Structure formats: C-alpha cells, structure tokens
Amino acid sequence: MIETLTVSLTGPAFSFLLYENMKSKFCQEGFLIGHLVEKETKTITDNDQQQIHLQRIIRINCAVPCPQPFYFYDAIGRVDTEKVKTFLGDLAPKVIAWYKYKPASSFNFTFRERIIHKQLSTLFNVPPEFFTCCLMIGESSDNNSTHTHTQTFVRYISHSYEQLPMHIVNLSDTHNAYKSPEQPSDTFLDIVRGLNINFKKAGGTNVVTKIQNALQKHIESTVENLAEAEKKLFQLESEVRNINNMVKNKDHTSASNNKESQLNDLIMMDTDPTDSPINSPTKATPRGRGKSSTPRSGKRNSQSPAKKTTPGGREIVTRSKKKI
User: Fold this and answer.
1) Mean pLDDT of the chain, nearest integer
2) Of 20, 141, 158, 277, which cross-links 146 as Cys (Cβ 3.0–4.6 Å)?
C-alpha cells in the first residue's frame, strides 16, 4: 500500500494570499481554510498483484489573515486558544493549516514558530500529522518592478519537519489528464436544490444554462453585500482613526498643561513673599517660661515691680517700698 500527501491550492486562494502579504512590508500570519480529501486507487500489476494507492490531498480554498503579528500568541510562543476561537468563529472547524510570511530572501523556521505549530496542531479538527504550515518569503528588485515569491508547506511527523509537495490548480495541469470529480460546496448544492430541476426529463444544455444563470445571480448579490460590508468597514476604520487622533491630541494637551502647572508652581515657590526676611515669622516664647531677648542690667530698679511665678504658671507682681 502506497500513501502520499500533497497540498492543492486554487488559483483565487493563492492570489488572495499573495495580495494580503504584499499589502504590508512587515511579517504577516493567518490561517488557511480547506478540507482533507482521500482517494484510493487500485491497480493490477503484470504479476496479477493488486496494488493500492491511497492519495491524501489537503485542499486549501481561502485564507484568513490576522490583523497584526503576535495576535494570538505571546513572546514565548504561548497560544491563546480562546482568542483564536473567538477570532475564527464559525470557520474554526474548517482550519487545516496556518501560514507565516516574511519579507526576506531566506526563511528560518524558528524555535518559537515550531512551538506555535505544535500547539495549533492539537487545537483544530485535523489530525496532527496532516496539519501543515505554509512558509512564505517575498523579495523585490531595487525599482520594485519584479517580485519573487517562494512558498513551501511543512508538517510535523516522527519528531521532525517534513516538506510537502504543492500543486496550484489550473496553472500546470495538462489538458489530456484525467480529473476526478471534487466534492461541491454547500452553497452550490443549495442553489441546485432551489432550481427543482428534473435531470431525467430536462436536456443537458438547459440544465447547464439554468445553473449558470442561478450562479450568476448569486455572485451578483454576493458582490453587492460585500461592497456594503466593505463600505461599513471603511467607515468604522475612519471613525477609529479619528478617535485615536482625538485621544492623542487630548493626551498631548493634558501633558503640556501639567508641565505648565508644574512650572508655575516652581515659579511661585521661588517668589513666595512669606520667605522674605521682612515677613518671616517670629517665634513667640510662652509667657512666663521663656527668657527675654533684651539684656538685663545687674541691678534691679527699686521702682520696677518684681515678678514671681507660681508652679501653676501664674505671675505675682510685688512692689517694693522706699524707706523714708
């Protein structure tokens, strides 16, 4: 039994992924939406031996970019599972891989990114040996006339990282090759069921025309809804930008006002009239306890009263009488 594993990307998914990465000059990361397809082929060799070929294909249909780097993990590579599930919402069960883009000439799968890959491989509804990571690098010429992109898919298996072959649909297919039918999407099946076509009585051309018209109407309505959603998104982004500018201006004005008030306080402290020697406060000594600052003569005046203090602090004044 022979088992193989390959990665298949549709043309729109690959172009959208490149577009999202080229919009920024910094690192980008996100999640890839798709499903796993298994095909079993039996062949008979010349020795009348049956050989089974099990082919597994990881089909990627679209990408979900993160708004900024380090969005769902911290500096040491710890993944916030609740934040990942909240960000993906209903798309979480359809995640089959994640990608990392760097604007550089070479790509190194760092130790932190390996830790992140191991944590993500156990978070989604994909067997860990089939959960892959798309490593992408991009560089341009000096005048930005030529852009070169390199991408590869890796998976973790048997305590090592293995590269997987990648195939982009409709770019290298031969016209005479046999193509096996793919599982249609739920949207397509709903559109066909809504037509109520009797495939036994209706002709092939009429059926194809009806399906084509229904798909065209669905695409037009989807484009209109998408245009309205993008318009609301642009309005919200402009409002957020204006609010951020208002907050920055408010912080700047408050900081300048604080500096001015501090300077005014320093100036007032330097020019405080209470610190001048004229208006400097004097310490009053308690009555009857402190010493007088005026010098006393050695002889007491007979006319002046003599003062005595009681233990309670009261003063007793006595006058001396002259002898005649």
Assistant:
1) 78
2) 141
